[in-house]
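Summary for the lay section of the report: proteins are chains of building blocks that fold into shapes. Here we show the chain for Phosphate transport system permease protein PstA and then a coded description of the shape we predicted for it.
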Amino acid sequence: MLGMDETKVQGRIKNRQLLNKIFRTLFFFSTLIGLIVLVMLLARVLTQGLGWFDWEFITTMPAPFADKTGILAGLGGTIALMIVVAPVSIIVGVSTALYLEMYARQNKLTRFIQVNISNLAGVPSIVYGLLGLTFFVYMLQMGYTLIAGGLTLSLLILPVIIVASQEAIRAVPNDLLEASYGMGATKLQTIVRVILPAAIPGMITGSILALSRAIGETAPLIVVGAATTIYSVPDGLLSKYSAMPIQIYYWVSKPQAEWQFVAAAGIMVLLIVLLLMNATAVFIRNKFQKRL
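The coded shape description reads as follows.
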């Protein structure tokens, strides 16, 4: 009997080891395929765009001719959009997360709100564009302006920031909260002096990643009236505007081959902006973690 039991145990161990090797190989090749596709895409963008990518391209306004055009209007519009999106989405998102985690009663209504916030994070961006068109452009009569586009993008990334901020708040050790309450601190004092300093790295990281998503969105901006061709940088909240994804989309849609190279150079600028934002998120997170 002991011999049969040992044989069964050894057989199960071999099966588990074989299964482990199969899944490890599967995961490895899945990762490899993703990396290969990414490298191929980057290589194509670089080979097409390097000949057009220079400082003059970044600092030049769009033009009717490929050899004279630039991305300054789109870059300036994207920066202006982020100036609107960042404070609105971060302040509202973090405040909502603090309310849900620290003040709201855990009942059916709260759970219903929580589930819907999570679901809203997966709603297609075009739906937010239609919402922005209906509410901001028409109902509030903002028109096809910078503030309408910025508020629409704020709605788009708001669920992501709320969820990321909630996770950062939940990661704060309960011992810190209990110690704060034990010292006689109020809930507001605990939030300001304990929770926010400990949760800021996660909040900032999630917020910047959400802003990175907003920078790359095209569909909602098309719906709310971002211009494909504009020859100025926005100088106010009610100004007409463009954005880098809109300009890239416009260039790609042109049939002439040279515009495809211009679009590749625009993609390079967009990737650089996104990489800088992600690097900023990592830097801020590490800086705050060292302080804690």
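Put simply, here is one thing we learned. The first helix runs from residue 2 to 49.
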